[in-house]
Amino acid sequence: MVRTASASMTAGPTLAVVAREAGVSVPTASKVVNGREDVAPETRHRVTEALNRLGYVRRPRFDASKPPRLVDLVVHALDSPRSGAILRGVEEAAHDAGLDLVVSAALSRNRGGRPQRGWLDKLTVRGSAGVLFNLAELTGSQYAWLEQHRIPFVMIDPVLEPPPGVMSVGAANWQGGVTATEHLLTLGHERIAVITGPRRKMCSSARVAGYRSALASAGVAQRPEYLRDGSFDESVAYRRMLELLDLSAPPTAVFVCSDRMALGVYRALVERGLRIPYDVSVVGFDDVPESRWTAPALTTVRQPLAEMAATAMRMLVRMMDGERPEGTRTELSTRLVQRASTAPPRA
């Protein structure tokens, strides 16, 4: 229940009252209200129960009489082509909606390797009207904080499947895996390997599922030794490609589940004295700018990052206006970008 302050209304409970009810200090209660991570789960649970039981409402630090015109974009990092495309799409859609945009890089690593997310404190201070996330994942307490404070948010290309009811926008990764594999099949390849991303990531598992489906539809048996786990890392893909080349019947083509990993595949092939695409064809996924400048230029599956970001921004605007879009997952089409890294297999 949302309460509005007025002279005729009794003020709600203070944070000190909540802290006393939960048996914690006021600073600890404040950490829970502001979504801080450094609170024990049991303590967080006690404070949250007290907040709900007493009907505590966080006092806004902005002028609540004026419509908020600020939204936040929280990304994993700012120094990648992927983040640049996301930012471009969000900025254009925010401009069209007359909204101001604040961009934050949420994840940094301390010596213990634990993610630090200072964006939550800043979000509280700014009084943002909504948030777009392009992150590896959020914690359960962060999802709970956003829901508790009724802040609309949308996930852009989430790595893990979000909780039920969370809005997200992504690419048609399964169809992209089908398209990449069908392209190689059409060229005449049957010995087609795949180097995957981490299995726990939605996009990676969907791309591999598309690969399997395309092979099955063509009546081509999938060889277990042709499936190699990767981690979206160039050096790992390099080692996996060397393993594939050491097989008694090495593949004539490989579908690599990211363009970054394709660079490692290129290096392995060059070291073995093999020519792309005459000895081995290569298909990537993403269509990052670097894929155009490899030698040869990389055939890849383009996922529309800027369009995904703009779609998420428009979805967030509707949620800020009180609408609830139909469905929780929106997928945009991928497409094959054919360049010079694929050709029919040698006779």
Provide a compact summary of the structure.
The protein is of the alpha/beta class. It is 39% helix and 16% strand.
What gross morphology would you assign? elongated
- Give the SSE string: HHHEHEEEHEHEEHEHEHEHEEHEE
Share of helical residues: 25-40%
Q: Classify the secondary structure makeup into a structural class.
A: alpha/beta
Question: Major sheet: order of its strands?
Answer: 2-1-5-6-7-13
Q: What is the rounded Rg? A: 24 Å
Q: How many beta-strand segments? A: 14
Secondary structure tally, helices: 11
Spatial gap, N to C terminus = 72 Å
Report the sheet-strand fraction: 15-25%
Largest sheet features: 6 strands, parallel
Average pLDDT for all residues: 86
- Low-confidence spans: 1-10, 60-64, 108-115
Which helices and strands appear, and what pairs or packs with what?
Layout (H helix, E strand, L loop, with lengths): L14 H8 L3 H8 L7 H14 L15 E6 L5 H16 L3 E6 L2 E2 L5 E2 L2 H8 L3 E5 L5 H9 L4 E4 L10 E5 L1 H14 L5 E4 L6 H16 L9 E2 L5 H12 L7 E4 L2 H13 L9 E6 L12 E4 L2 H16 L8 E4 L2 E3 L10
Parallel strand pairs: 1-2, 1-5, 5-6, 6-7, 7-13, 8-9, 8-10, 10-11, 11-12
Antiparallel strand pairs: 3-4, 12-14
Helix pairs in contact: 1-2, 1-3, 4-11, 7-8, 9-10
